[in-house]
Amino acid sequence: MAPLIPTLREGRVSIRPIRLRDARALERELISNRPWLRQWEATLPNAPLSVDVRSSVRNLQANSRAGLGLPFVLEWDGEFAGQLNVSSITWGSLSSATIGYWVSERFAGRNITPTGVALATDHCFFSLGLHRMEICIRPENAPSLRVVEKLGFRYEGLRRRYIHINGDWRDHFCFALTVEEVPAGVLRRWLDGQADEQAAAIPPVDRARAATPLKPGS
Ligand SMILES: CC(C)(COP(=O)(O)OP(=O)(O)OC[C@H]1O[C@@H](n2cnc3c(N)ncnc32)[C@H](O)[C@@H]1OP(=O)(O)O)[C@@H](O)C(=O)NCCC(=O)NCCS
């Protein structure tokens, strides 16, 4: 059954379910933040990216009704600031999901994303009963790597040519948390200064591998 998507708040940040009437604000932000977002944007290997924002909101909602995702909007003082998607929800023996996110450039650096990730992960763990949350990040994306570092997500490894981003298959560093690691919750642990930033440390050997393109046939 599709889980209900709540509105959750911490300070000036909130996450709430995306609605079809967000399409206009979403489109405006996607267009005006094109240079800011493009290099991190998921693309399709064999098709152009859809520019129909209403259809993409509908797809997110359909995915959510199928129990496979939680499409949130990130807000700052009630203003649209970006998106946070819990996706690839797998129930049963895996009980895991993935988080992706972005904020408009003018909202960067206000802790909106780590707050949203913490709220969403705690909801998935303690309300929905998921066991594990994963975040995968391109090695070049220092601001996003900082988000998982702040929250103490645990480095799991390098995935070669893992996700199609900005027109090609890109390496990603993978981070995760399981519910047992955060008995008081991700948000509480971070706010209390108890998140272990070292957990997200990337071994130099993986940094070096990520800096070397995978050779054909290797
Ligand atoms: C990655 C991203 C979501 C982080 O969101 P955020 O809400 O700004 O997160 P934070 O406030 O925690 O900032 C994280 C780091 O970004 C850096 N940062 C802050 N302001 C910035 C700015 N104006 N421009 C670039 N980087 C900035 C800082 O290093 C900050 O760490 P600090 O708080 O220790 O100084 C955001 O930069 C973004 O949307 N980038 C483009 C899309 C993207 O990369 N999505 C993620 C794909 S995995």
Could you walk me through the main structural features you see in this protein, from its secondary elements to its overall organization?
The protein is built from seven helices and eight strands; from the N terminus they run ββαααβββαβαββαα. With 218 residues, it is of the alpha+beta class. An eight-stranded mixed beta sheet has the order 1-2-3-4-5-6-8-7, with helices on both faces. Strand 4 (79-90) and strand 5 form a beta hairpin. Coenzyme A is lined by residues 36-37, 40, 101-103, 108-114, 137, 141, 143-144, 146-147.
Q: Supply the CATH superfamily name.
A: Gcn5-related N-acetyltransferase (GNAT)
Rg, nearest Å: 17 Å
Number of helices: 7
User: What CATH architecture would you give?
Assistant: 3-Layer(aba) Sandwich
Task: Give, in spatial order, the strands making up the sheet with the most strands.
Answer: 1-2-3-4-5-6-8-7
- What general outline do the C-alpha atoms trace? globular
**What letter string, H or E per element, gives the SSE order?**
EEHHHEEEHEHEEHH
Briefly note the structural class of the backbone: alpha+beta
- Residue-averaged pLDDT, rounded? 96
Oligomer: single chain
What amount of the residues lies in strands? Answer: 25-35%
Number of strands: 8
Q: Into how many domains do the coordinates divide? A: 1
Instruction: Give the CATH topology.
Output: Aminopeptidase
The separation of the N and C termini measures 43 Å
Question: Which CATH C-level class is it?
Answer: Alpha Beta
